[in-house]
Design a protein that fits this description.
Layout lengths: L4 H17 L5 H9 L7 H12 L1 H9 L13 H16 L5 H15 L2 H14 L1
Helix pairs in contact: 1-2, 1-3, 1-5, 3-5, 4-5, 5-6, 5-7, 6-7
Amino acid sequence: MSMSRHDIRRLAFQTLFAMSSNPDAVAADVYQTVLGRDIEAPEYLTQLVDGVNEHLAEIDEAISAHLKKGWPISRLNKTDLILMRIAVYEIKFVDEVPDKVSLNEALELSKEFSDETSRRFINGVLSNLI
């Protein structure tokens, strides 16, 4: 089964969201839930999920640097934060994905999982980061 990078990013968001809601969750189990039992996780999905988790402190620091003064990252809603974490991971660590593509993908996913206000916020933070 072939998936687009957009579909994989959507699955990465769902996986990271589930894992943030349940810190004891194991990525492999969450993959089976979001993909279905007999489908192997695409390599790019595991790269995104593992990459975000491995570089979480650096990613959050990059996001925090572009928030309003006095706004801690803990104040962000979980959906926006996870979408930005995926985009920042790609911007900082995935050379073959252009920064603008990562930004656009975060905005496209925000249309599905968030609202217009969040989309503008995500756009502002990521545009300043780029």
